[in-house]
Amino acid sequence: MAIDVIYEDNHLIAVNKASGDITQGDKTGDEPLPEKIKRWLAEKYKKEGNVFCGVIHRLDRPTSGLVIFSKTSKALSRMNELFKKQEVQKVYWAIVETKPKNPQGNLLDYLRKNKDQNKSYSVKKGTPEAKEAELDYRLIAQSDRYFLLEVRPKTGRHHQIRTQLSNIGCIIKGDVKYGAKRSNKDGSISLHARKVEFIHPVKKEPIEITAKVPNEPLWKWFEKEVRQKN
Asked: Fewest Cβ atoms closer than 10 Å to its Cβ: which of 79, 108, 193, 194?
């Protein structure tokens, strides 16, 4: 079965989502990840009947990387509380077309979602339906054409990273919706949910999970560059 499980215990399961997979059902009718995970768990543990798989957070369809699901309702409610309190530290990697003016910084914007376009826009503070969005970024590697940013969002808004980076001229490679020159061949955008850190909601111990980058030459090159620097 085509899912990449990178962490599992009695309460949680984390997968490395491929670009194109969906974390919840949509109008396409494609099978969402929770359904794939339910079948995977049923086969692994030879379970009959219903298998629980709770959606804790989501990733945009063209984005790859780490997504955590719950295997119990107790874990789901406790993880939801951790996300609500912003006690889950998320790290993304983004390959962008333009070098940021500052090698690191904090971005604070107010975003409003246009549901018809499935797109978010940066608007003035106080605009109706606008929500505060904040992230930290830093430049961690560069090639002759592209730049790798490490992004740590402090809020979880619709298309937040895509919108905020494009707002400073750092458009994510392949993200035509937010101004990229061309799409990636596989329909992905070069945004990857790299790592999460949190205190386990049941075991009460620190958890750190890292998702490998997509098996694509530019991603692999950047991963090697970062590893060599560290």
From this structure: 108
Q: pTM of the full predicted structure?
A: 0.95
Q: What residue type is 19 in one-letter code? A: S
Would you state the pLDDT for residue 4? 96
User: What is the C-alpha separation between 5 and 201, in angstroms, rounded?
Assistant: 19
pLDDT of residue 141: 98
Q: DSSP characters for the chain?
A: ----EEEE-SSEEEEEEPTT--SS--TT-PPPHHHHHHHHHHHHTT--S----EE-----TT-EEEEEEESSHHHHHHHHHHHHTT-SEEEEEEEESS--SSSEEEEEEEEEEETTTTEEEEE-TT-TT-EEEEEEEEEEEE-SS-EEEEEEESS--TTHHHHHHHHTT-PBTT-GGGT-SS--TTS--SEEEEEEEEE-TTT-SEEEEE-PPPSSHHHHHHHHHHHHH-
